[in-house]
Amino acid sequence: MKYNEGMYLRRCHPSKSQKEKIYWQLVESYRSERGPRQRVVAYLGDTEESLRLGIKEIATGRIDIQQTQFFRGTPAVAWIEVDPNLIRVERVRDFGGYWFGLQVLEKLGINRFLAKIVGQGHEEIPWNMMALTLVLMRLCQPSSELRIAEELFEQSALGDLLGIPVEQINDDRLYRSLDILLPHKIELEKYLKERLGVLFNLEYDLLFYDITSTYFEGESKRNNQAKHGYSRDHRPDCRQVCIALVVSHWGLPLGYEVFAGNRFDATTVEEMVNKIESQYGQANRIWVMDRGMVSEDNLQFLKSGGRRYIVGTPRSQLKRFEGELLTDDWQNVYEGLEVKLCPGDDSQETFILCRSASRAQKEKAMHDRFERRIENGLAKLVESCNSRKQQVGTTERRVGRLLEANSRAGGLFKIQVKTREDGGATLAWEKIEAWREWALLSEGCYMLRTNIKGWDGERLWHAYIQLTEAEAAFRIHKSDLTIRPIWHQKTERVQAHILVCFLAYVVWKTIGQMCNKAGLGDEPRRIFAEISKIKMVDVVLPTKSGTEIRRTCIAQPTKYQSILLDRLGLHLPKQLDYQKM
To answer: If 0-12 CB within 10 Å is exposed, 13-18 middle and 19+ buried, where does residue 84 land?
Structure first.
């Protein structure tokens, strides 16, 4: 055997909290395509110094014993006496989810791409491997960088999967990884667009654009994008940023941007469209947006560039087509949903009237509930005015709050507050039946508009309804990947945090497509959770001679887990091949 200068002994502790307990590992240092790596050749346990040094002499070739026999192949000794009463399991750690996520990252080629664009210097742990750590942690155990360093990394099998020693993980290194990753955001978006297109035969003919917000804990004074604004998270007390996302079919992402938290949705459209076109060129795409993005300026901008669109329309514009709602020439999309095409005034646009039976029932129930609340509230105000002297201004404000809290039925009531002879307030009200008639006619109805020619109503509706993919993407970011709340304070760190969440979302959606292809549906939550239950452990076998044999083992999957892995075309390794990590 050739002399190997890469062999050394590593002193370890079972955990960061158990510094008094020591065991030893024989470690080989080598270079791979991903940079420097360390591989644990053997766990030596708590062995005495003379035995440790002897093992090191054997491994480095100074003593003529085949290392491959001693560690990797058939053991030199056929049988070893083990004390069964002292066999134990140590360092139980999560394996399945991290391993599954790493398989997907390999499929996407993200690690190779990161290694190429980030480059390699003299760092002890390559930055691309640290980026993988952040993404996989966000996918499997979303938390802060500090908690990852102090607790979660040690509880996971990432150290074994990526060849990163636990003691090399600290919050400073994780924060630095965020800083190094962020400048490559656009390159990553471009690469993923091409890669996802190849993997899933994806055509980027329909682009769905939506925007959400996510809030901060803390004052965020050093972040110039952290502003108070309309909060989708119902946290108006917190500063926030807005995240604009463009996805294609099945919710596969194309790009995103971070805006100030007080940015109005419609003001982001032109900037976001220009961003996508500058990165990928101006193709014959169709932009799909909800009514919150619509303004006449935005529509004019889309038309001026020859862009096609399908957008939602404010409910107030339904009144223009009151006559069309009364006719019977509707196209049935499926039971309970009808659509009708109505030409616009300039013949360049088409309006799509949509009528949903289930939505009509929901809206009618809401109108009835709010009507009862307003009626009961007004009755109490009348009684209050009659029983005691009330100020006119106070009564008007109470009426205003009542209508504001039940705005869906506010237009049904005509309310007058007057002054009595004694200076007190008197209140009278009546219902406007014309409003009720319009409400009954328009319940369940909404309207779209488009400049696409040659499509029927059903096709236009199906294209628009896929906008729910963008809304689902935000739900995944907020629930599964825990993008909120944001604890970072610096602008760049916040943007890097969102980039890591974006990459984890790409992995999530790729898993969804793998499940779909395997006939397991396109919702990976239960499948990912089941595979994540697979553990990795260290089995310690105390021998009669007093030494310990330590072996890292991957738990055998259950019958159900084996079926899932087989359907997904994944094969759980018996031992990790460190040379490929």
So the answer is: exposed
Instruction: Please indicate, yes or no, whether residues 191 and 175 belong to a single structural domain of this protein.
Output: no
DSSP state of 266: G
Per-10-residue mean pLDDT, the chain, length 581: 55 65 74 69 63 55 42 48 86 96 96 89 87 96 95 94 91 95 96 94 92 92 92 94 94 94 95 95 90 92 93 92 91 94 87 95 95 95 91 94 93 93 91 93 95 94 92 90 91 96 96 94 91 94 82 92 95 68 39
Q: Is 348 helix (H, G, I), strand (E, B) or coil?
A: coil
Both 41 and 180 in a single domain?
no
C-alpha separations of 69 from 51, 58, 78, 239 in Å: 18, 11, 11, 62
Tell whether omega for the bond before 165 is within 30 degrees of 0, i.e. cis: no
Among 224, 229, 252, CA closest to 240: 229
Rg (CA), the chain: 32
Q: Which of 442, 477, 493 is the last residue of a domain?
A: 442
Residue in 365, 316, 324 with CA at minimum distance from that of residue 343 = 324
**What does the alpha-carbon distance between residue 160 and residue 581 come to, in Å, rounded to a whole number?**
9
Give residue 178's domain range. 97-184
